[in-house]
Amino acid sequence: MPHLNQIVGLDLGARHARAVWVQLRGGAPHIVRAEQMALPLEGGDAPALLRSWLGQLGLLKKFAAVQIPGTQLVFQPGRLNPEDPRTPRQAAEMELSTFNDMAGDTMASDVASHEWSPGVRIYVMGMARPAVIAEALAGLEPVGIRPADLVPAPVALFNALAPLAPDLSGAGLFVNIGHNQTELAIGTARGLLFARAFPMGGRQFTEAVARLAGVPLTQADKQKQREGTIEPGGPFAEALRPLAERWYSQLAACLSAYRGAFTGGQFGIARVVLSGGGAQLRGLRDYVQERTGLPVGLADELPGAAALAWGAGAGRAAGADPRDARPALGHFDLALGLARTALESGPATLSLLPEPLRGEVVFREKKPYLIAASVMGALTLGVVTASMVVSLSGETGKLDEERRELRRREQMDKSIAAIRQRGELLRQRGGPLRKLLLGGPVMREVISLVANAISPDDWISMICEETSYTRQPKAGEKPAAPAPAPRAGFFVPGFRSVARSAASRPATEAGSLLAGLTPPPPPSDFTVFIIEGYTPDMGLTTVKAMIQRLKTAARVRQVDLLSDDRVLPPTLPEALRDQGVELPNMRRFVVRLEVGLP
């Protein structure tokens, strides 16, 4: 958070609580003060003890940079070549969507990136479930701390030790062995390359001593610090040596993942730096050096570490000779890294603090300036308002002229709207005539098609456009029934219909040719025609043949039989009946013909 000039880095571990005050002077961080408190290994109310200690330090309800353990996060490194147009954050967001799908949750994340070489960019993305972040923030409420930043522990470790490490060829491996877990970071002065953590630390070594010696954990921890060693034949070596091997196997797995992500000699590890209380175990430094084949040092041995610790007054009693005190950077590294990350004075910046809390930090830091700016803004607003009143009074004449012009344009708009309305009315009234003129050639072609397709024994009583044959629904009325009822005005004179009325017969008789027919589509403009006629063929064979012949026409899209009725002949005079004259029964049919426009 570059808007801050001073911040407290607060490392609340399982075994110790450490606080480091860091201030920016000329853009460079300086340790102003460092304090620590041991927490009980067994029993005790740790939150109450921490609250009391923080109250003595004057940190209650104050903002401080705190850590989130690396074991609760997922770190994903990445590398972008010069030809990749994406930014590191864009590439990380694409990978984040994949992790969200796998986790079934929207992960909170941030990215630390740097340019490794011209055009080559390297980034490390840290991800955590929202529930993990909420739990970490909720744990600060009982001790009375407001989070100014929430930094992953491996990132804080890197920001504390990387600036002090000698600039050798290759990357540095920084390992902090805490009480419950081990945090590690790999990188150079240019930036962070890799971060990881695994759940094994000094507690497992203490428990092994307690089991071997048969003493409580508190006493076992003291014996481990005083006598414990992993060197063969040393005190408690038979219990601590196997644990060291287990610990190194997990460290080796992390290194294997790093080498898989970054291949090539330019990413080789040149040195190892150990820190934390677990790094003080005798023989562990030589064991790691033997297994890795790399030079291994402690954080307290880094150049400038001693001066950094002396300036803070950390690790020595009041009035003690500084030359007799032990440098404490190996214990205060995480607290220092938290402060440097919050001040953005380290080589890597990665924060998982939710955005609303970041805004609160900014607001409280800038509150005096915001109040002053508000007062100045109010004064400025008053001056501007007064000038606007004066200006508006001088613009009254111009506004009146604008109103007159506006009324003139409104009248013009009404005239234009009336002209458009008349034009639309003329267009609507001329529409039917236009349809008739355009439909004449189509109707002539339809008549020709029907004349060529009809049987000599059948005759046609009517050919018309569909909208003229079926009653069209009025505004707000339901559409007509799918099958139109034939109009009585087109009967052949003298013939009587034997069809039942619509109210006394089912919609579709069983076995009728109408069964299974789909309702006709909505009326169209001279593309759908109705053909009504009569046939003496009770089986409608000639009608079906006519339909098949019509279907073969190029312009015909669809031909359907809409309805058929049986009609009886008229009653003949007695003289004709005596002569044996008989009129056949007829069958009336209605055919729907759909044609395509040219």
| CATH architecture descriptor of the largest domain | 2-Layer Sandwich
Task: Give the distance, in angstroms, between the N- and C-terminal Cα atoms.
Answer: 74 Å
Q: In what range is the share of β-strand residues? A: 15-25%
The overall pLDDT average reads: 84
Structural class: alpha+beta
The percent of residues in helical segments reads 40-55%
Number of strands: 18
Q: Provide the spatial order of strands within the biggest beta sheet.
A: 3-2-1-4-8
CATH topology heading of the largest domain: Nucleotidyltransferase, domain 5
- CATH class division of the largest domain: Alpha Beta
The value of Rg in angstroms is: 47 Å
Q: Can you identify the CATH superfamily of the largest domain?
A: ATPase, nucleotide binding domain
Report the total helices.
15
Poorly predicted regions are 310-327, 482-518, 520-524
Count of discrete domains: 3
Short note summarizing the structure:
41% of the residues lie in helices and 24% in strands. It is of the alpha+beta class.
Q: Which SSEs are present, and which pair or pack?
A:
Layout: E1 6-12, E2 16-25, E3 28-38, H1 46-57, E4 62-68, E5 74-80, H2 88-103, E6 108-117, E7 120-128, H3 130-138, E8 145-152, H4 153-161, E9 171-177, E10 182-188, E11 191-198, H5 202-213, H6 217-227, H7 237-261, E12 269-275, H8 284-292, E13 296-298, H9 305-312, H10 329-342, H11 355-394, H12 396-453, E14 459-465, H13 466-469, E15 496-497, E16 528-535, H14 541-551, E17 556-568, H15 574-578, E18 586-595
Parallel strand pairs: 1-4, 4-8, 9-12, 12-13
Antiparallel strand pairs: 1-2, 2-3, 5-7, 6-7, 9-10, 10-11, 14-16, 15-17, 16-18, 17-18
